[in-house]
Amino acid sequence: MELPPIGAHVGPEDPLGEAAARKADAVQFFLSDPQGWKKPEPRADFDALRGTDLKVFIHAPYMINLASTNNRLRIPSRSLVADHAKAAAEIGAAGLIVHGGHVTKKDDPAVGVQNWKKAFEKAAEQGGYPLPILIENTAGGDNAMARRFDRLAMLWDAIGEYEPGFCLDTCHAFAGGEDLDGVVDRVKAITGRIDLVHANGSKDPFDSGRDRHENFAAGTIEAQAIAAVVRAAGAPVICETPGGVEGQAADIAYLRDHLISG
Fold it and tell me: Looking at the domain assignment, is residue 1 inside a domain?
């Protein structure tokens, strides 16, 4: 089979060097503090990414929650997604990954779904996002928009017309209670697409609701099951696993070896 681009989540200081160290042909990184609300700042050194074959993805800050019923969280989230989408497009990124978000226990999940739709409506009024917004499934929370796939189906019914992309995280699916066997088909039956796979092991057991990534050889997910998801998806891959260069390089090599061997 033709191998998809396979890479890792790295620091933003030297994405090209980080990719070379891992023998990666894709990278993902943050453009600002993932736990903060700052806008991305222009950096001339990112211009070099455009002149390479490296597949680049940008992950939006974790604070973003487009589903929230809290105006003081939801409205700034919309602005920050727009800011990061613009900055990501300027460096030639293939997509901006945004977590599905959640509502509180007292909220109707349907309101969170409609809040996502309003975000796309507002963006459409301004000409739309300049690159694909890849919604990522999440591991925890009974009131999450993208943990259980029945809720994901509600979300796509509302926003599918805007053609968002989807990022499938293997750790999140496993920890969130979704069996990895056949997960690609189940996702595509809802979204029609998978644009990116976050290939991650899990430190915790199935349906734990805990988002703790692990290297393939050490986690509770069989490494072959992760490779099977990647093979079925046929999409670019980012390993968000621990261990720095050594740990991520090993996971990248494992995927390449197992995709080639079948």
Answer: no
Is residue 137 one of the residues assigned to a domain? yes
Please give the tally of structural domains in the chain.
1
Residue 176: CATH number of its domain: 3.20.20.150
Residue numbers of the domain that contains 142: 6-261
The pTM for the full model equals 0.97
CA angle 209, 210, 213 (to 5 degrees): 135
pLDDT one digit per residue (tens) for the chain, 262 residues: 689 999 999 999 999 999 999 999 999 999 999 999 999 987 878 888 988 999 999 999 999 999 999 999 999 999 999 999 999 999 999 999 999 999 999 999 999 999 999 999 999 999 999 999 999 999 999 999 999 999 999 999 999 999 999 999 999 999 999 999 999 999 999 999 999 999 999 999 999 999 999 999 999 999 999 999 999 999 999 999 999 999 999 999 999 999 987 6
Contact (Cβ atoms closer than 8 angstroms) between residue 138 and residue 168: no
Domain membership of residue 177 (yes or no) is yes
Residue 122 to residues 68, 81, 108, 117, Cα–Cα distance (Å): 16, 12, 22, 9
Q: Do the domain assignments include residue 174? A: yes
